[in-house]
Amino acid sequence: MRIGIIGTGRIGSFHAAALARHPDAGSLLLADADPGRAVRLADRLGATAAPSVDQVFTWGVDALVVSCSTEGHAELVVRAVRGGLPVFCEKPVAPGLERTLDVLREVGAARGVLQLGFMRRFDAGYAAARALVRSGALGRLHSVRTTTADPAPPPAGYLAASGGLFRDCLVHDFDMVRWVTGREVAEVYAAGSDEGLPAFREAGDVHTGAALLTLDDGTLVSSTGTRCNGAGYDVRMELAGELDQVSTGLDDRTPIASTEPHGPPPAGKPWTGFLERFGPAYEAELAAFVRLVRGEGPNPCDGTEALAAFRIAEACERSRRERRRVQLDELPGL
Hints:
The structure is a single chain. The chain has 334 residues and is α/β, with parallel strands linked by helices. It folds into two domains: 2-120 and 283-302, NAD(P)-binding Rossmann-like Domain (Rossmann fold); 123-275 and 308-330, Dihydrodipicolinate Reductase, domain 2. Helices cover 39% and strands 21% of the residues. Strands 12-11-7-10-9-8-13 form a seven-stranded mixed beta sheet. A six-stranded parallel beta sheet has the order 3-2-1-4-5-6, with helices on both faces. A hairpin with a 4-residue loop joins strand 9 (208-215) and strand 10 (220-226). Belongs to the Gfo/Idh/MocA family. This is Dehydrogenase. Residues 250-273 are annotated as: Disordered.
């Protein structure tokens, strides 16, 4: 098997290293908008660097990993499925909902194979929470709380093309709400703050946001996120039912301190970022893609699943901007 990887920045380099270690992944063909960056990574991994993106397609690969900047995702996914290539794409498929729908229609028309990068589906803590909910051990859920907090804001240039806090960051929380609970979001109400660094206002974005989601069975979900959590990288999900409650992401590296006299000590080595926190999940995600390409496993997150999370994020952004409740059925779908 020969796998092409387009985009060898931070996440692309991580994916390439994971695939280079995988016994069934075969050889790698790397390409990047900066050809020198692809060459340097290829040299470290014993892979081959292509001089341009076009060569990845013309030299021939059996599957494609798209990990370049967001604005390039849609074109590459469409090109891959039209050429009969299974493709793994980092979220999002496209910056906006309409373009996302266009791409997914192309995937459907080509009967293509597309797996989206929602790595939390492969995290042990979230998988355990899902199993507990589905088993009935928590009883009927009444409340769910999620949080994603980055330790520092991304570069200003990233903000402008990111799609915003809800689409870029909290979309992972929204995917987990659906995946863990097995329910759909019916309505959202969201707000955000752009106080502080002017880069957020200039990008039309917010550094901190909160959303109240109502699920189709009446369960209430509060989702909060921030780009400015100086204590460290904090990702948690709390599920409260009539019989019990549990939390994911709560361990000796969670960057939160108790004010209680006999509370647990503060984290000695807080998580620094998403690659450290979810490293094993990213590896498992790519292993699932290899199985998918080899015809040995199901698609763990196809375009329809990714679209559902993106529609929630889009509804939250609309709610924030228009300062009103938004029903999910207001947004177009496939």
